[in-house]
Amino acid sequence: MESVPGIDPAVPPTGPGCVECTEAEGWWFHLRRCAECGHIGCCDSSPGQHASAHEQATGHPVIRSYEPGEDWFYSYPEEAVFEGPPLAPPEARPASQPAPGPAGRVPANWMDLLH
């Protein structure tokens, strides 16, 4: 597959969960991976919306789902989902980690807190 701007297939993810939520001891609904630098952020339905905040702060234009069984990419500039190349492993959060997650930090009323 040819090179796609905003995607570096060799860069590993930053960890098993949203960087900012982990630092703040928060929680997330679903996870997204920056296809350029590997930053793991939470989706726009999550309270923190850290994946979109990362794109706005860095200009990195493409994310990939970081959920087990999902391999779609999303281009912020084009507002479009597309297929892309395999990325450095792991390609998803640990299957043992629930969504929402992480275990033990999700409030009982989490559905009321989604965007």
UniProtKB/TrEMBL annotation:
Residues 1-98 form the UBP-type domain. Gene3D superfamilies: Zinc/RING finger domain, C3HC4 (zinc finger). PROSITE patterns: ZF_UBP. Residues 86-101 have a biased composition (Pro residues). SUPFAM superfamilies: RING/U-box. InterPro entries: Znf_RING/FYVE/PHD (IPR013083), Znf_UBP (IPR001607). It comes from Arthrobacter koreensis. It comes from the Bacteria. Residues 84-108 are annotated as: Disordered. Pfam families: zf-UBP. This is UBP-type zinc finger domain-containing protein.
